[in-house]
Amino acid sequence: MTRPVLAVALTTVAFAVTTAIPPAAICQPKAAAPVVRFTPPPTATPVAEVDLAGAVAAGVGAAGGRITLGLSVLDLTTGRLAGNGGDRPFFSASISKMIVAVDVLSREVSAADRDRVWRALSASDDTAMNALWSLHDGNGAIGRVARLAGLTGTSAPKDPAEWGETTVTSDDAVRLQAYIQSSPARDFIHAALAAAPDTAADGFDQDFGLNGPGLDAFGKQAWMFYRPNAVYLHSAGVLSGRYAIALLSIQRGRSAAGAKEQVNAIAGAVAAALG
User: Fold this and answer.
1) Strands 217-226, 2-3: parallel, antiparallel or unpaired by DSSP?
2) How far apart, in whole angstroms, are the C-alpha atoms of residue 195 and residue 198?
3) Is the dihedral of CA 20, 26, 27, 32 positive or negative?
4) In angstroms, what CA-CA distances link 272 with 96, 189, 268?
5) pLDDT by residue (tens digit) across 27-70?
6) Contact 64, 191 (CB under 8 A)
7) How many Å apart are CA 86 and CA 248, to the nearest integer?
8) CA distances (Å), 87 to each of 28, 96, 153, 263, in order?
9) How many CB atoms lie within 10 A of CB 52?
10) 217 within 8 A of 240, measured Cβ to Cβ
């Protein structure tokens, strides 16, 4: 998808590590949402702590120039979160499909709508998403899920017709994965993401990031193009059944193939550091 010129501020955000998921910075004025903190399920045996900040640092170190990055890693077993630029706002592109899927599957829906959700998540089918957005108040779904999941940096698009311009942060993208863990629709959502074909419905190669070769992971891939040379390329999902990872990026002066190489390098470095 191609959009007009968009100016995006380039800033540097320091690393942050907490023992629980903190509220992210609110990206624009809005009513405060109740924050839902992720509580990991009890385990029979102690879980070894992992250097999440080190993994994020490895990912940032693997990034080249001409990139605006939001990178967050959440340990689903301990509730610990680390990030770089985790509260930085990005246009979501197809990451918003996961938010709408959570909302739609929270109630009884038709077989046709379940099929639309499956296609929107797996093949990233825009036609299926357009129908869900229209039939199920997708613009309102962004706020509903944000309140339920404690997504403090997520907001609906200013133009209600442009679901790809939903605002999201990488911290919120991993919080969403944590919320999905306790959702009755978890298995359906995870299966759809894991079934993503290499080639998306629009012909784009979505075999990158967490869906790239060699990783024990699944994720929602997202891409969007703004003239003259900005590429939005995101990957958000779960690695090794334990880590929720969100990698959101804007890259300039780089081809789609080059942008994918960047995202692959970052995702690979994070995965290697997490072991």
Assistant:
1) parallel
2) 9
3) positive
4) 28, 25, 6
5) 333 333 333 345 555 554 667 889 999 999 999 999 988 999 99
6) no
7) 9
8) 11, 17, 7, 19
9) 24
10) yes
CB 185 within 8 A of CB 176: no
pTM for the whole thing? Answer: 0.83
Q: Is 272 exposed, middle or buried (0-12, 13-18, 19+ CB in 10 A)?
A: middle
Q: What is the DSSP letter of 19?
A: S
**For residues 64-83, average pLDDT:** 96
CA–CA gap between residue 74 and residue 81 (Å, rounded): 4
Instruction: Give rounded-to-5 percent helix, strand, coil for the chain.
Output: 35, 20, 45
- What single letter denotes the amino acid at residue 30? K
Q: How many CB atoms lie within 10 A of CB 184?
A: 8
85 has pLDDT over 60: yes
DSSP type of residue 155 = B
Numbers of helices and strands, H then E, in the chain: 8, 9
Is 90 exceeded by the pLDDT of residue 227?
A: no
**CATH for the stretch 51-274:** 3.40.710.10
Residue 172 confidence (pLDDT): 98
Q: Which residues contact 200 (CB under 8 A, 6 or more apart)?
A: 123, 124, 125, 206, 221
E-assigned strands of 58-109? 67-75, 81-84, 90-91
Rounded Cα distance between 102 and 107, Å, is: 9
Radius of gyration of the chain (CA): 17
Within 10 Å of residue 211's Cβ, how many Cβ atoms? 23
99 to 102, 112, 171, 218: CA distances (angstroms)? 5, 18, 14, 16
Interstrand relation of 16-18 and 67-75 (parallel, antiparallel or unpaired): unpaired
